[in-house]
Amino acid sequence: MLREKVPHAKWEIRDSEYEGFYVRGLTQEGILIKITAEDAPGEFYLGIYTYQAHPSLDPLRRQTLVQELEQQILQAFEGEGGSSGE
After folding, report:
1. Residue 31: Cβ within 10 Å count
2. What's 80's DSSP letter?
3. Strand, helix or coil for residue 83
4. Class of domain 2-79 (CATH, top level)
C-alpha cells in the first residue's frame, strides 16, 4: 500500500528497543518518514522529518513535499481502515 502511494520512497520495517516494530521510509530528497503503532488498535503515529533532507532543497519545496507525503500516506491508511488518531 505505501509503495503504491509513495513509490519514490524506500520502505523498510525496523525494530526499536523502545517502540517495537515500525515502518521507516526515506525519500529521494532525504525526507525521513516513521510510522509506529499506537496503543489503540488501528491507530498509528506518523512522523515526517526533514533534518536529513538535502541542503540544496528549497524550504518552500521542503514544506510542500512534507504536506504531499502526509496526504499520500494518510490516504493509503484510510484505504486500509486505519486512523492516525488526529
Report:
1. 21
2. T
3. strand
4. alpha beta
Is residue 6 classed as helix, strand or coil in its secondary structure?
Answer: coil
pTM: 0.83
Domain boundaries, the chain: 2-79
| pLDDT one-digit tens code per residue, 20-76 | 899 999 999 999 999 998 888 888 999 999 999 999 999 999 999 999 999 999 998
How many CA within 13 A on the CB side of residue 14? 14
Please write down the HEC assignment for all residues of 7-70. CCEEEEEEEECCCEEEEEEEECCCCEEEEEECCCCCEEEEEEECCCCCCCCCHHHHHHHHHHHH
Residue 45 burial (10 A CB sphere; 0-12, 13-18, 19+): middle
For cell 509506529, name the residue.
Answer: 36
